Amino acid sequence: MPIPSPDELKALRLRAGLTQTELARRAGVSQSLIARIEAGKVNPRVSTLMKIYRALQEFVSEQLTAENIMSTPLVYVTPDTKLMKIAEIMWRRGFSQLPVMDDKARKNLGTVFDNDLIRAFLKEDTRAATLTAEDIMSDPLPIVSHSTRLRIIARMLSYETPAVLVEKEMKIVGIITRSDIAKILVHTREKT
Fold first, then answer.
1. pTM score
2. CA-CA-CA-CA torsion sign (73, 79, 80, 81)
3. Are 103 and 124 in contact (CB under 8 A)?
4. Residues 47-68: pLDDT tens digits?
5. What domains appear along the chain, each with residue ranges and CATH number?
6. Angle between helices 46-63 and 178-190 (to 10 degrees)
7. Distances (CA, A) of 45 to 2, 4, 37, 117
């Protein structure tokens, strides 16, 4: 992880809407230290900068919800979608998984992962053109509420789950992948 500069920390604090006092309390340092760091009057230890930066990251992850970070509209396939079409969508959009949904009820039926496709093409090379999503799909992705906090989603995605679907008002409205979480971290750093 790159070490944030004092200017980056100030920009992150302002963007998060935190006062120096609030950030100091969250980071376990004094408000005057935050003020001196931001004014360039002190050269803080790297460990102190990291402590403040982690407090900012925790605050941001407490505030963001699934609705703030989901990719929408949801791109999905139906059970009868042919493998060649699924491969084309995944390749064109850079996806590593696609939800399999009932088109009418938008019910979460399963997931086609890139590994499922590869195995199907290698194992069933003569029949692959006739196979559909239903023939090769894996278990459905977990579903989270649109109000689920980023911290909880990040924990879910740090294990076996590569993505979660987002539900609002009894409808699946989006998806969050591990790369979406990574984009948030990079985006936060780029804005400074």
1. 0.69
2. positive
3. no
4. 888 889 888 888 877 778 899 8
5. 6-63 (1.10.260.40), 67-187 (3.10.580.10)
6. 120
7. 14, 11, 10, 50
